[in-house]
Amino acid sequence: MSVPKLALSENTEAVLGKTRAEAVVVGTVQGANGLELAPGAEAVDAALGGTLADVLRTLGATGKAEEVVKVPTLGKLPAGVVLAVGLGKPEPTREQVRRAAGASGRALTGTARALTTLSAVDLQAAVEGTVLGAYSFTAYKSEPGDAPVSTVDVVSPAEGSAREHRATLKAATAIAESVLAARDLVNTPPNDLFPGSFADRARKLAEGAGLDIEVLDEKQLKRKGYGGILGVGGGSSRQPRLVRLSYRGPKAKKKVALVGKGITFDTGGISLKPAANMDHMTSDMSGAAAVLASIVLAAKLKYPLEITAYLPLAENMPSGTSYRPGDVLTMYGGKTVEVLNTDAEGRLVLADAIVRAAEDDPDYLIETSTLTGAQMVALGNRTPGVMGSDEFRDRVATIAQATGENGWAMPLPEELRGELDSKLADLANVTGSRWGGMLAAGIFLREFVAEDLPWAHIDIAGPAYNSGSPWGYTGKGGTGVPVRTIAAVLADIADNG
Ligand code: BES
Ligand code: MN
Ligand code: ZN
Q1: At 228, is the pLDDT very low, low, confident or very high (cuts 50, 70, 90)?
Q2: What span, in angstroms and rounded, lies between the C-alpha atoms of 362 and 341?
Q3: 266 annotated to bind ligand
Q4: Are residues 221 and 83 located together in one domain of the fold?
Q5: Is the domain of 193 the same as that of 141?
Q6: How many domains in the chain?
Q7: What is the pLDDT of residues 14-40, one digit of tens each?
Q8: Fewer beta carbons within 10 Å, N or C terminal of the chain?
Q9: Whose alpha carbon is nearest atom 17 of ligand 1?
């Protein structure tokens, strides 16, 4: 993972006159009469004789979201080009700035050093967007190609003190780096990222952040009765693990448990998936990646909370040792589940981890997973579904909206519960119909959540992985969703209880 070096500069004019940046990034907006420059561009425009907006309009630029236009500075600035990036509608939101900064971060590939003025509009969003947009995953390329931008000078906003700006820069960089850490895990192919190697990587990250870590292997899982994780992971030659990380912050008043689905590859098992796009299932551990990145971030930023994170890790493979449709599993805690479809495996590993997480007696439980294809049918590729206990679910969804990850609250309709009744066990792992597939999975999980524990599950089946073209600050492959939502919920609990 490469993260550009970021340096704050409090005085734009002074920096502009002697900058070593090759490109200066300015924002544009769609004004009532066409393109206008966004705040922060004034000094750049002055150096160009007040012509910048006219030049951009002449080139056909409109200021629409993520539009990128390069203009040569013809010796009027030390930097050779102005990179104008569209924010869209005027009075841009934080997410508009983040996306424009992301587009600029992508467009700066091949540029060694840049100076951005988007930070004059919103420092936090500009930093997050620039770092996220500049990410690329080249670990498996013989020829990595043009490098992402390696240094970005960041212009300070007019309001606030230098000290506040430094703190904002530090937090925004840490948040963005955590998103990238999650992306790296998701983008690592399943032949290299399997339960054992994932646990090893969790250990390295945990040690670096001063977290406690405990890893249960298949023998310990068996001894303690983790029937869900063992059932799902039994078909693979690479045996399952349960990772537990814990962090105790200064003056912690609240305890939060995190759980993330870690299926390192999901073939569907004996209920085998179709071949088309099965490679997408390399992302089926995105929940675990996000949870791991989030607890590391909480430690880095010293959130005043106590946090435990659980990563149930398994590979869902068909083989002679696989679990079968018709099997009954005894889950951690003793509930029995009739497996009617081995491809509904996420809920099984999550159920074990959810029951274990409650033993720590948390005040809140936040879970996330690439749970169901039905999430994408309901909400598309960019909108996570948030389920859970009503009040906490709504709080998480509202915060998700503010981060730009845009989670949306979903119901758990009571009439679906009966469809999970099993002919011989306490519960079946799927219903007999396709309708409300995400909600049925949510209702299954609810059976394992301790009574009265405020709980939210974020289904990121689509949003975790971008199989389309890059957009905003999101490249191809792992997106790192919902790290920023989890981080913001943790910060909110730290502030408001
Ligand atoms: N990992 C999948 C969900 C998924 C699908 C994530 C597409 C990302 C993209 C999950 O384990 C799964 O297979 N769910 C089944 C459930 C069904 C058998 C009830 C699904 O959605 O088809
Ligand atoms: Mn599956
Ligand atoms: Zn899965």
Answers
A1: very high
A2: 32
A3: yes
A4: no
A5: no
A6: 2
A7: 888 888 999 999 999 999 999 999 999
A8: C
A9: 344
